[in-house]
Amino acid sequence: MGAYSPTPPSPWRHHLLCSALLLIFIWRTAEANEELAALPPRGWNSYDSFSWIVDENAYMQNAQIMAQKLLPHGYQYAVIDFLWYRKYVDGVYTNSYGYDNIDEWGRPFPDLQRFPSSKVDRGFSQIASKGKPYMEDGKQWTARDIGLTHRTCAWMQCGFMSVNTDIGAGKAFLRSLYRQYADWGVDFVKVDCIFGTDYSPKEIITISELLQELDRPIILSVSPGTEVTPALAENISEHVNMYRITGDDWDKWKDVSSHFDVSSSFAAAKKIGAIGLQGRSWPDLDMLPFGWLTDPGVNQGPHRKCNLTTDEQKTQMALWSMVKSPLMYGGDLRHLDESTLSIITNPTLLKINHYSQNNMEMWELNDKGNLVSSYSRLCATVESVQEQGTAGTRAWVATGSKG
Ligand SMILES: *[C@@H]1O[C@H](CO)[C@@H](O)[C@H](O)[C@H]1NC(C)=O
Ligand SMILES: *[C@@H]1O[C@H](CO)[C@@H](O)[C@H](O)[C@H]1NC(C)=O
């Protein structure tokens, strides 16, 4: 996600001192020694259909439908996206200040109103565990010492800020936070406002190192991906399992078409399935915003159907599959229709998405009628009739398991 709001920045001291936003529970826990994210992960994410206000009931219903209809097709992570620790009361929005549930150690915990099972001993009760203040050099360190007040998140300044990972106290805080996530039974974390134009390599690497200390395998996903290039990912991909390479994708053709060039550059740079955190890493094209959705940056609705045509949705699914992007469905599964289900479970595309190799763009027929080879950049001019509003034609190739 990523959203702007006009609310002015507030005093820093109560800000959430971290950027971890998403928690995900997996339907089948990975074996201890299995390679992490050996295949591009698949699942469901609450953001496109609920913005931040998803509650336990809606989440569980979606997770159950995912388990029933999508798990047989490899969709296994059910993601609670974005501000799960914020109270949902009148007048509270994405960039509101002062409504977050933060424990005495500065760590966020789920909003009890929205996630009532957090109250009982189902992993979330770990939020009540007691600890000791962090001491170093005879001093008790506090949030004020580790928060980087000049590095609040540009698009949600009242949301979160960076942590100083150069000092022991900053690392101790992050260690405590990620241990807590592991204790809750989380299998996947997506850390936001830390990549792309919000690039914070020290924090990414620190979190990656802390995750390796844990007994529980946890997939690390970083976001958002505005203005990401293979050069920016160069020092990061080996520390994570997936990383966004574009800004938020919504159900507009312009958003879909803007993924072609950046996907081609990551394929050419051999970043698809490169070494990652305890396994592999995958350039992430963002969720699939199909089916029943909401709008960016809202609270309660409007709830509406996807604006893409069926052909546009098929094109998006085909590109995401050829690029071997993680596939995270974004629509409310309680309103999943047969046409959408058949697009996201297309057996050929899902096989390509998991098992093909050497995926790359072959050529592009651009809007000037030039056929451009993606290898040599040699051009040929072809006669073509251009429909208004289309952005040319692309061809991708990949090697299958049988060659
Ligand atoms: C990646 O690391 C190299 C070597 O430390 C450094 O020169 C380069 O600037 C880094 N790239 C980015 C995008 O941070
Ligand atoms: C979807 O289409 C409706 C009707 O044309 C429009 O009002 C709305 O802004 C569109 N939503 C998005 C996210 O493009």
Strand and helix map with partners:
Layout: E1 20-26, E2 42-45, H1 47-50, H2 56-70, E3 77-80, E4 135-136, E5 139-140, H3 143-146, E6 147-152, E7 161-163, H4 168-184, E8 188-191, H5 201-213, E9 219-222, H6 230-234, E10 242-244, H7 253-257, H8 259-268, E11 274-276, E12 279-284, E13 292-293, E14 304-305, H9 310-322, E15 327-329, H10 338-344, H11 347-355, E16 357-365, E17 370-373, E18 379-381, E19 393-399
Parallel strand pairs: 2-3, 2-15, 8-9, 9-10, 10-12
Antiparallel strand pairs: 1-3, 1-8, 4-5, 6-7, 11-12, 13-14, 16-17, 16-19, 17-18
Helix pairs in contact: 4-5, 9-10, 9-11
One 2-acetamido-2-deoxy-beta-D-glucopyranose is lined by residues 250-252, 295, 307.
CATH architecture of the largest domain: Alpha-Beta Barrel
Count of folded domains: 2
How much of the sequence lies in strands comes to 15-25%
What is the helical fraction, as a range of percent? 25-40%
Radius of gyration: 21 Å
CATH topology label of the largest domain = TIM Barrel
State the order of secondary-structure elements, H for helix, E for strand.
EEHHEEEHEEHEHEHEHHEEEEHEHHEEEE
Low-confidence runs of at least 5 consecutive residues: 1-20, 121-130, 384-389
Q: CATH homologous superfamily of the largest domain, by name?
A: Aldolase class I
Distance between the termini: 38 Å
- Which ligands occur here? 2-acetamido-2-deoxy-beta-D-glucopyranose
Average pLDDT level: 85
Strand order of the largest sheet: 11-12-10-9-8-1-3-2-15
Tell the overall outline: globular
Keywords: Disulfide bond, Glycosidase, Hydrolase, Signal
Pfam families: Melibiase_2 (PF16499)
Protein name: Alpha-galactosidase
EC number: 3.2.1.22
